TrEMBL record:
Taxonomic source organism: Hypothenemus hampei (Coffee berry borer)
GO CC annotations, alphabetized: Golgi membrane
InterPro entries: Man-6-P_rcpt
Record-annotated membrane-spanning stretches: 188-213
Keyword flag Aminoacyl-tRNA synthetase: no
Protein name per UniProt: Cation-dependent mannose-6-phosphate receptor
Matching Pfam families: Man-6-P_recep (PF02157)
Length: 260
């Protein structure tokens, strides 16, 4: 019995952990990940200053990234020797062809389309996000990914982490987690909600109890009817006490009440 119970608890824990990690975004589009009702990451405004692809090169490998929309990559715009390729995609990878220590050509291919962008957490982190191209044609063993690094400097830079796994990092203030303003109830509003809720429970619940359990009818259904009926008189006494200079013995006869 104990083994069965332990097995059930273990499976419930696994299911719970998987459900916590299964949906990183409440809903996502290729340009936006809504983390919750008020927080989101948006790539929609990522544009290079010259309207071209963001570029980084390491040794004989170059990557070109245009954001969350596909764009036409023209090799002539980047002075790629011997290459006359026109490609339309979101992430382009080019490698050099070297003959006798001389670059003779570039081999370029699309390794990511905008429609395949998915958002994911960076491994071993809780709050760092990355985009992954889910249906990539890359020959590497892993899917191309771009880590989104929030940078307060007003520029966007693409850097290579590993050309073997097609892992990149994008530094930009645009990829920071943004928060929509939201307004909560004021203290007074919360007090009013609590007050009216308790009042409804008190009068409706108390009225039902008086009606069904004690057989009360009419005004007698009001809980503590004698107390509520005496409130006007108590208020009257309080006002007389205040306006008489807080002298408790200054009012002694009914005629004095009428005179006031």
């Amino acid at each position: 019995m104990a083994k069965y119970f332990s097995y059930v608890v273990l499976n419930l824990c696994v299911i719970f952990l998987n459900s916590c990690q299964a949906k990183l975004c409440l809903y996502e589009e290729k340009c936006m990940c809504h983390i919750d009702e008020y927080s989101y990451i948006s790539l929609a405004t990522i544009v290079s200053p010259d309207k071209k692809f963001f570029r980084d090169t390491y040794e004989n490998i170059s990557y070109f990234f245009t954001g969350c929309e596909d764009a036409t990559f023209n090799s002539k715009d980047y002075n790629l020797i011997g290459n006359k390729t026109n490609l339309t995609g979101s992430l382009i990878k080019c490698s050099t062809v070297v003959v006798n220590n001389t670059i003779t050509d570039y081999n370029c291919s699309i390794i990511g389309y905008a429609k395949d962008i998915k958002y994911d957490l960076v491994p071993n982190t809780l709050y760092e996000y990355q985009i992954v191209y889910s249906n990539s044609t890359s020959v590497s063993k892993s899917l191309p990914s771009i880590r989104l690094a929030c940078d307060n400097i007003n520029r966007t830079d693409l850097k290579i982490i590993s050309s073997d796994t097609d892992a990149l990092i994008l530094y930009s203030p645009v990829v920071c987690i943004h928060h929509n303003p939201h307004y909560s109830l004021s203290t007074g509003s919360i007090f009013c909600v609590i007050f009216f809720t308790i009042s409804l429970i008190y009068f409706i619940g108390g009225g039902c109890i008086m009606y069904f359990l004690r057989g009360a009818r009419g005004a007698e259904m009001i809980p503590n009817f004698d107390f509520w009926a005496s409130i006007p008189g108590l208020v009257n006494d309080g006002l007389i006490f205040v306006f008489s200079g807080c002298r408790p013995f200054s009012v002694s006869t009914a005629e004095t009440y009428d005179r006031i």
